[in-house]
Amino acid sequence: MKPTSINQAWNSAEKCEQCPIRHLVLFADLQQDDFNQLHVPIHDLEIATGNSLYKEKEAAHFVYTIRSGMVKLVRYLPNGSYRIVRLLQQGDLAGIEALNGSAYLHHAITLQNTSVCRIPIENIEQLNSHSPHLYKQLTARWQKVQSDADIWLAELTVGHSRKRVANLLIYLSHYGKNDSLYLPSREDIGAILAITTETASRIIAEFKRLGYIQSVNHNTLIDSSKLKKIQ
Fold first, then answer.
1. Please, what are the averages of pLDDT over each run of 10 residues along the chain (231 residues)?
2. d(Cα 162, Cα 143) in Å, to the nearest integer?
3. Which of 63, 110, 202, 209 has the fewest Cβ atoms surrounding its Cβ within 10 A?
4. Of 220, 194, 193, 227, whose CA–CA distance to 112 is shortest?
5. Predicted local distance difference test score (pLDDT) of residue 13
């Protein structure tokens, strides 16, 4: 490895150790000796709204830790429509399938201005071979993928449309503060919940009229207690 690459890798390790959300991310349990094994630079990237981290079927050489913002994982259908299969927020890992040697399974597109750490697969393979500290976090990331998939199937794509929208708003509020959340576009809400854009628009308008949702200073606030009563 060139000296400049070695220096970049060392700088990356130092930044990882000092990361303010390190307790949330893949490298949360690493020790000093583990960071010394990082030989390929980890890059901080700022991705503007609507841009891609990677595309479906691309060769996967990196995973991405979401430091801030939101990313949607999209699967495009043969008829030209699309479905959103997961939403990723702070601390989540995008492209986790790369750890199995797979190509990327989805398009990863930012919903907001998003900051990420791009982690080369070589670093993870090196750490996983020589350190016991990564295993727990890798297991936790796979378990979260399974948990999110269960939520998607059980709460967001079954039942009547009003209940699906209510469940989505409650789900999104878990990532905000005091029932404040980022509200996706009506088209994206439809793609998440398997309903039409028109249905999503109608229900959001109804919830606003009933006071279940309100916009305050560019934020969306919800009344989660009322939304939970929708059957």
1. 40 57 61 65 89 95 91 92 91 88 93 91 78 72 81 86 94 78 93 95 96 85 92 79
2. 29
3. 209
4. 220
5. 52
Q: From CA 105, how far away is CA 98, in angstroms rounded? A: 9
Which residues, 6+ apart, have CB-to-CB distance to 207 below 8 Å?
165, 166, 169, 213, 227
The angle that helices 186-193 and 197-210 make with each other, rounded to 10 degrees, is 110
Q: What is the DSSP letter of 57?
A: T
- What distance in Å separates the CA atoms of residue 81 and residue 95, rounded to the nearest whole number? 22
Instruction: Report all structural domains of the chain as residue ranges with CATH numbers, in order of start.
Output: 3-134 (2.60.120.10), 157-228 (1.10.10.10)
Q: How many CA atoms lie within 13 A of 221 on its CB side?
A: 8
